[in-house]
């Protein structure tokens, strides 16, 4: 169900040389990858996000360290605590999101279904709720 947020387990290959994980668009994602970006050097206590996307779908992976992904679909809240580099949170379009509780040196990588477009953001929670009720 691509309307619901979900935790996606990625492959991991463990051997004496260390670990390897990967994402394949066709195997692991319900969208095509247009963009990859990453969030790093987040000062303690800072919160990222605080917006929703009208069209963009994403997968967020904690490549290093840990943080929480808090989602709201207009009715209920979801919380995913990420601390392994072989799990990703799939975020459908029209989900309010926040990233918080970043550990020191954490690194979030986000694969995204769109190019960056400031017009795809809804930055006001009340506007988000209004738009949700229209759909
Ligand atoms: P923003 O979306 O506010 O970050 P977060 O989702 O963590 O709250 O983005 C921060 C700044 O970076 C903002 O000025 C827009 C810019 N930006 C890009 O230019 N390209 C991108 O792909 C992203 C995600 C952000």
UniProtKB/TrEMBL annotation:
Q: What is the organism field in this record? A: Saccharicrinis fermentans DSM 9555 = JCM 21142
List the InterPro entries: QdtA_cupin_dom, RmlC-like_jellyroll, RmlC_Cupin_sf
Positions of the Sugar 3,4-ketoisomerase QdtA cupin domain = 4-132
Q: Which Gene3D superfamilies match?
A: Jelly Rolls
Put simply, this protein is called: Sugar 3,4-ketoisomerase QdtA cupin domain-containing protein
